Amino acid sequence: MSQPSYAPLRAGAAADIHDASTSSPETLTVSTVAAAAVGAVGHHLLKVEGYSRLKRMHGGTGSSYIKSGEFTAGGHAWRIQCYLNGEHEEEAGHVSLYVFPAVAPAGIVHAEFEVELLHHHGAAAPWPFRGRVRAVRFRAGRKWGYPKFIAVKDLERRFLRDDCFGIRCSVTVVEERAAAEEDVTAEDMDRVGVVCPCKDGSCQFKHERPAETLWEKIALICRFICGEASS
C-alpha cells in the first residue's frame, strides 16, 4: 500500500471547509442482528413424591438420578435431571439440578432456562433456590444447570411436605437472526452522531452535517485536496 501524500492548502481553502462539509452528504445504512425466541416457551412441573424412598434408591453420590418426563420448547424436547445427593463427590450433601435435550440435537441449540423450587402453596422460592441461565449452547450429550442447587438439609427442612417437593422449569430456545437493510430512523442517526434534519420521522438515506471531530476535519481536508487535484 502506498504512503499518503499531502500538499499545502491553497489560499482560502480553510475558509471553504465548512461549505465543503455541508455539500458532502453522508450515507447511512442499517442492518440488525438479534437473538429472538423460537416458538413457544416450554413450562414443566416435576413433582417428586415418595422422597424418602427415592433418596434411598438414588441417594448415592453420582450413582443414579431422577428425571422428568419430556416437555417441548422451541421445537425441541427437554428433560430435568436431578441428583438427590450430588452428581460428584464434591457435591455430596447437595441436590444437583440440570436441564438437557431429551433427544440429541443435530447441531447446536441455544436456549435459556429457569428452574425453581416451589413452596407448599405453589409459589416459587426466592433466590438462591431458583436460578436462571442465559442463552447457553446445548448439543448432544451436553447439559447445563447447578451442581449445588440446594443443600439436602435445606430441601428437607424448608420444601419437603408429605414426603414430596416440586420443581418448576421454563425453557426458551433462541436463535440469531439477521435482518436485511432497513430504513434509517432518526434514532439510528442519533446513535451514530449524525444530525437528522427530517421533521416527520421518515428519514432519508442521505443526511448532512458539518465535520465535528478532529479526524473528521482532517478527512474533510484530504477529500478537499483530492477533489482539487482531480479537477
TrEMBL record:
Cross-referenced SUPFAM superfamilies: TRAF domain-like
Domain MATH as annotated: residue spans: 41-171
InterPro entries: BPM1-6, MATH/TRAF_dom, TRAF-like
Pfam families referenced in this protein's UniProt entry, alphabetically: MATH_2
UniProt cross-references to Gene3D superfamilies, sorted A to Z: Apoptosis, Tumor Necrosis Factor Receptor Associated Protein 2, Chain A
Name this polypeptide is given: MATH domain-containing protein
Organism encoding this protein: Urochloa decumbens
